[in-house]
């Protein structure tokens, strides 16, 4: 059956003909999945930048930053899966390519040449703040649709990104 076609019973059918009938409208599921796709792209991009900086950091703070970046990229890596799987639970495909992430992300790729250590910290602080803004922008959609699992996921992500941004800001305030 065609994608998005209404049945006599009302629920909207996904592409494979199986209805997604969880009490959230087709329009709201699409809007929330679109927002979560931007959050996934931001999170993956920030993950890769943080891992890049773990590899390339230099200077007197090497040990501290190398270790801190590892904790941060591990957390980001673990975060992409629940975001992607929430998109799937809403009946939409999860983006998973560098081209899709480049198109969807609100944050830039890591610089081609590794910056100095404090510039790395500044870039990551900007990144965590940007991901927090992306997560926050989805909240009204989830709230309005009664989508508590997405709201819960966004709350968890906001807590991490705002706390990490604070820690990075504190490093910059030497
Ligand atoms: Fe390592």
Topology record:
Elements: H1 26-56, H2 62-89, H3 98-104, H4 117-144, H5 148-172
Description:
By secondary structure, the protein is mainly alpha-helical. The longest helix has 31 residues, at 26-56. It has a single domain (26-172), classed as Ferritin. Residues 1-10 have low confidence and may be disordered. The relative contact order is 0.16. It is elongated, with a radius of gyration of 18 Å. The protein has five helices and no strands. It has helices spanning 26-56, 62-89, 98-104, 117-144, 148-172.
Overview in brief:
The protein is mainly alpha-helical and 174 residues long. 68% of the residues lie in helices and 0% in strands. The chain is elongated, with a radius of gyration of 18 Å.
Question: Measured on Cα atoms, how large is the radius of gyration?
Answer: 18 Å
CATH class bucket: Mainly Alpha
Query: Structural class from helices and strands?
Result: mainly alpha
Uncertain stretches = 1-10
Going by CATH, the homologous superfamily would be Ferritin, core subunit, four-helix bundle
DSSP helical segment count: 5
Quickly count the domains.
1
Task: Give the overall silhouette.
Answer: elongated
Beta-strand percent range:
under 5%
What characteristics describe this protein?
single chain; 174 residues; mainly alpha; Ferritin; 5 helices; disordered N terminus; binds fe (ii) ion
């Amino acid at each position: 059956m065609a994608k998005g076609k209404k049945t006599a019973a009302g629920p909207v059918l996904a592409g494979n003909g199986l209805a997604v009938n969880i009490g959230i409208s087709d329009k709201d599921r699409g809007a929330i999945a679109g927002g979560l796709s931007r959050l996934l792209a931001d999170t993956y991009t920030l993950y890769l930048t943080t891992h890049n900086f773990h590899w390339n950091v230099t200077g007197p703070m090497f040990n501290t930053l190398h270790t801190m970046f590892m904790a941060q990229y591990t957390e980001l890596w673990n975060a992409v899966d629940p975001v992607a799987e929430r998109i799937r639970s809403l009946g939409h495909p999860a983006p998973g390519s560098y081209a899709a992430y480049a198109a969807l992300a609100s944050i830039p790729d890591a610089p081609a040449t590794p910056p100095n250590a404090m510039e790395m910290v500044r870039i990551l602080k900007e990144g965590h703040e940007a991901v927090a803004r992306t997560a926050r922008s989805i909240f009204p959609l989830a709230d309005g649709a009664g989508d508590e699992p997405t709201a819960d996921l966004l709350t968890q992500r906001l807590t991490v990104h705002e706390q990490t941004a604070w820690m990075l800001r504190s490093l910059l305030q030497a």
